[in-house]
Amino acid sequence: xxxxxxxxxxxxxxxxxxxxxxxxxxxxxxxxxxxxxxxxxxxxxxxxxxxxxxxxxxxxxxxxxxxxxxxxxxxxxxxxxxxxxxxxxxxxxxxxxxxxxxxxxxxxxxxxxxxxxxxxxxxxxxxxxxxxxxxxxxx
Length: 139
Ligand SMILES: CC(C)(COP(=O)(O)OP(=O)(O)OC[C@H]1O[C@@H](n2cnc3c(N)ncnc32)[C@H](O)[C@@H]1OP(=O)(O)O)[C@@H](O)C(=O)NCCC(=O)NCCS
Fold this sequence. Notes:
By secondary structure, the chain is α+β, with helices and mostly antiparallel strands. It is 27% helix and 41% strand. It has a seven-stranded mixed sheet, sandwiched between helices. The radius of gyration is 14 Å and the shape is globular. The protein starts with a strand and ends with a strand. Coenzyme A (COA) binds next to strand 4, helix 3 and helix 4.
């Protein structure tokens, strides 16, 4: 298992991964934007050179960071890959001086494991799930 910054050569595989999650509207265009923007981060997690996980985030404002997405390929879940991606993301966010991280997600319980707290909610954003706005400060 390896985690590295994505390159433009990875965007097709990242796009396929994003498409496999039916709820999300994100596409490879987001990955391209994050790879090309210096205040942004696009990570990929590989197993045997195949991309099985990805995370995208962007530095915003003075010391804030928005986490756009994290995804792990279905058959590679529950092995700690997302936790490793989050760990690397926190390291990179600290490097750019980020002190506050925010995101929106239907997966509240997953992000609570990392210290995020609910600060808002969009009821029934997805057919059967709310979109939860979450926030944490980086220690
Ligand atoms: C959410 C997701 C990224 C988790 O990936 P994963 O590799 O299976 O997660 P990990 O194995 O690293 O699990 C890390 C921890 O989160 C927990 N966890 C994993 N998925 C969870 C979920 N859907 N809800 C609550 N907790 C979850 C695990 O039990 C583990 O907890 P532990 O360390 O205390 O045992 C993955 O299910 C996914 O890609 N889902 C679709 C995309 C998505 O919803 N992304 C989040 C919104 S952007």
